[in-house]
Design goal:
11% helix; mainly beta; 8-stranded antiparallel beta barrel
Length: 193
């Protein structure tokens, strides 16, 4: 995971100078956005299998985000996340994969600040050590965020999303009472070119 993150950061550093020179307004039609989201995040989770308790977790789950501005301020894109983890005591690694298309609408607030609203839908797949089953889940969400342009083509991002996860499936069989909701708050970086 560290190698993947390092590769993404190096790619971003190569693309950054191009974005600064090439872009007058980062959300113009024909522009691209490349970002690393959820460098740090907070999840508030509540669901069928949590009774009355709310689960709170703080962590880092870097997500690669990319998109294309089809019109001024309107971006079609996706987020991708993959993690594989194996400790010495595990036979096989735990893996998580997420693909999440999204539609974002950017609103300029000032010369250096962009607000956005977004709609997202996604699919995730997970496997766990010693378990031959594949766990799958869909997700639907609404969110918004702010991007502060540190430089013309580089922004620091904060976002908040409400995401609903319907019941998950194990190898194609739906598990009842496994749906849940989360509110996710995260920070990241985006480059525009």
């Amino acid at each position: 995971m560290k190698k993947i993150l390092l590769t993404l950061v190096l790619l971003w550093l190569v693309l950054f100078p191009v974005s600064v020179v090439a872009q007058q307004n980062p959300i113009d039609a024909g522009s691209f956005e490349f970002g690393i989201g959820n460098i740090a995040n907070l999840w508030l989770q509540k669901g069928d299998n949590y009774d009355e308790a709310t689960d709170i977790s703080i962590g880092s789950t870097p997500v690669l985000t990319f998109g294309y501005f089809v019109s001024d301020g309107i971006m079609l894109g996706a987020s991708i996340y993959y993690e594989s983890y194996k400790s010495e005591s595990m036979t096989d690694p735990d893996t998580d994969f997420l693909l999440q298309p999204q539609l974002k609408y950017y609103i300029p607030v000032s010369s250096q600040t962009l607000a956005n609203l977004r709609i997202l839908a996604g699919y995730s797949s997970s496997t766990y050590d010693g378990d031959s089953e594949t766990y799958t889940r869909t997700r639907f969400g609404l969110g918004g965020g702010l991007t502060y342009l540190l430089l013309p083509g580089l922004g620091a991002v904060i976002h908040a999303d409400y995401i609903y996860f319907p019941n998950r499936a194990v190898s194609g069989t739906t598990i009842d009472n496994s749906s849940y909701n989360i509110i996710e708050i995260g920070v990241g970086l985006s480059a525009y070119f």
